[in-house]
Amino acid sequence: MSFILDYYNYWVVVFLMMAGFYIVISANNLVKKIVGLNIFQTSVFMLYISMGKVTGGTAPIVVEGVTQYSNPLPHVLILTAIVVGVATTAVGLSLIVRIKRAYGTVEENEFENKDDAI
Amino acid sequence: MAEFIDLVLLAMLALTALRIIFLKDLFAVVMLFGIYSFLSALIFVNLDAVDVAFTEASVGAGISTVLMLVTLAMTGRKEKQSTHSTILPLFVVLVTGAALIYGTLDMPPFGHPDNPVHQHVAPRYIEESPKEVGLPNMVTSVLASYRGFDTLGETVVVFSAVIGVLSLLGVRRTKKKDLESGLETHKVLHVVSKIIIPLVILFALYVQFHGDFGPGGGFQAGVIAAAAFILYALVLGLPKAFAVVGPKFLQWMAAAGVLLYASVGLYSMYKGGNFLDYNTLAADPIAGQHYGIIIIELGVGITVFAVMLNIFYAFGSQAERSNIQ
């Protein structure tokens, strides 16, 4: 049981990462691909935060009488990564809007013969 | 107990992700993605990352979901049936996943205080930062002071994202009489949002200035304030929102936040310290750190607010334009 508890978080991270990866390579719709990329990204966040956790520790805000804190460094890295993540998602979505306007579709398999359309 | 909560929440997260794969209705996919973000925020709280949870709840479940919905309004709601086989992607994913699972077995076990991650700089941050920086929230100390360079870089990335979105889409002003914008006819929504919006803005200011002592800071406050204005724009329509804060003004604001941040760095150099060395800002180093952190967090908050709102304006005005056509 302790073996499972020791690695459970990492296994779920791998599962989520592969779910996101699968959506990115198999979905036809570009919006769904972006959702897949976001799931992939969140799994990386989860990995970092899982590594920062200390059993018996508390949130890294100083409180009287607490000696064990979780690691604040992964929190800082991921906090900024989330905001940058939504910024890049916005750029991706605006590219999709432009693709829709130029090609009239956001399904990957429908672009193929439309290169001359622009 | 914490382990049990962790087990259940992570299982729910995995199920949500699994469902997203098979759904063809993109509206449902985006809604599930919102749930996915909220679940991740809960897991972050359970893993002691309160600041991160705050950010994920406001950004992931708030802004990303709204942006994806606006995009769906323009690109259509249904995903068409895939034509190519799913066997090759499945094979690639299974092989990669198996390799990664094999890799996790070499990871140090979850939660042990002796893990390599906790040996390097982290003990210094935990033991010294309350004395050196004088703030109880270590995440803010590391974010704004020790890693101030990095945060300046992130703010510039956010700023460049808005440049990217605006150069791809641009914000078009629609004339007031052109269309029925917003949801004016929904009276209940109208009244409720009028009560909520001031409270949300007040909360954003609290998060901004209380971030040194509790969870919060410029990134979260900027996003929450932007969410209040996005609600206003959704209910009352873009033209009325433009009258409150216009897109041109937001462009200046986004730049002003980054410049405010960088100018603190330049000022500390003028005072004889290194770039972003807040100790030189006041006679007492601790007071200098406080001034520095409050000003740069304000810069971050202004930039993030302006960028998020302007990105929404860009998407929203595109959607209204395609509605007219």
Automatic annotation (TrEMBL), chain A:
<dbReference type="GO" id="GO:0005886">
    <property type="term" value="C:plasma membrane"/>
</dbReference>
<keyword id="KW-1133">Transmembrane helix</keyword>
<comment type="similarity">
    <text>Belongs to the CPA3 antiporters (TC 2.A.63) subunit C family.</text>
</comment>
<dbReference type="InterPro" id="IPR039428">
    <property type="entry name" value="NUOK/Mnh_C1-like"/>
</dbReference>
<feature type="transmembrane region" description="Helical">
    <location>
        <begin position="12"/>
        <end position="31"/>
    </location>
</feature>
<feature type="transmembrane region" description="Helical">
    <location>
        <begin position="75"/>
        <end position="97"/>
    </location>
</feature>
<dbReference type="InterPro" id="IPR050601">
    <property type="entry name" value="CPA3_antiporter_subunitC"/>
</dbReference>
<keyword id="KW-0812">Transmembrane</keyword>
<keyword id="KW-0472">Membrane</keyword>
<dbReference type="Pfam" id="PF00420">
    <property type="entry name" value="Oxidored_q2"/>
</dbReference>
<protein>
    <submittedName>
        <fullName>Cation:proton antiporter subunit C</fullName>
    </submittedName>
</protein>
<feature type="transmembrane region" description="Helical">
    <location>
        <begin position="43"/>
        <end position="63"/>
    </location>
</feature>
<keyword id="KW-1003">Cell membrane</keyword>
TrEMBL record, chain B:
<dbReference type="GO" id="GO:0005886">
    <property type="term" value="C:plasma membrane"/>
</dbReference>
<feature type="transmembrane region" description="Helical">
    <location>
        <begin position="53"/>
        <end position="74"/>
    </location>
</feature>
<feature type="transmembrane region" description="Helical">
    <location>
        <begin position="152"/>
        <end position="171"/>
    </location>
</feature>
<feature type="transmembrane region" description="Helical">
    <location>
        <begin position="250"/>
        <end position="270"/>
    </location>
</feature>
<feature type="transmembrane region" description="Helical">
    <location>
        <begin position="6"/>
        <end position="22"/>
    </location>
</feature>
<comment type="similarity">
    <text>Belongs to the CPA3 antiporters (TC 2.A.63) subunit B family.</text>
</comment>
<dbReference type="Pfam" id="PF13244">
    <property type="entry name" value="MbhD"/>
</dbReference>
<feature type="transmembrane region" description="Helical">
    <location>
        <begin position="86"/>
        <end position="105"/>
    </location>
</feature>
<dbReference type="Pfam" id="PF20501">
    <property type="entry name" value="MbhE"/>
</dbReference>
<dbReference type="Pfam" id="PF04039">
    <property type="entry name" value="MnhB"/>
</dbReference>
<dbReference type="InterPro" id="IPR046806">
    <property type="entry name" value="MrpA_C/MbhE"/>
</dbReference>
<feature type="transmembrane region" description="Helical">
    <location>
        <begin position="221"/>
        <end position="238"/>
    </location>
</feature>
<keyword id="KW-1003">Cell membrane</keyword>
<protein>
    <submittedName>
        <fullName>DUF4040 domain-containing protein</fullName>
    </submittedName>
</protein>
<dbReference type="InterPro" id="IPR050622">
    <property type="entry name" value="CPA3_antiporter_subunitB"/>
</dbReference>
<feature type="transmembrane region" description="Helical">
    <location>
        <begin position="191"/>
        <end position="209"/>
    </location>
</feature>
<keyword id="KW-0812">Transmembrane</keyword>
<feature type="domain" description="MrpA C-terminal/MbhE">
    <location>
        <begin position="115"/>
        <end position="175"/>
    </location>
</feature>
<feature type="transmembrane region" description="Helical">
    <location>
        <begin position="290"/>
        <end position="315"/>
    </location>
</feature>
<feature type="domain" description="Na+/H+ antiporter MnhB subunit-related protein">
    <location>
        <begin position="188"/>
        <end position="309"/>
    </location>
</feature>
<feature type="domain" description="MrpA C-terminal/MbhD">
    <location>
        <begin position="11"/>
        <end position="75"/>
    </location>
</feature>
<keyword id="KW-0472">Membrane</keyword>
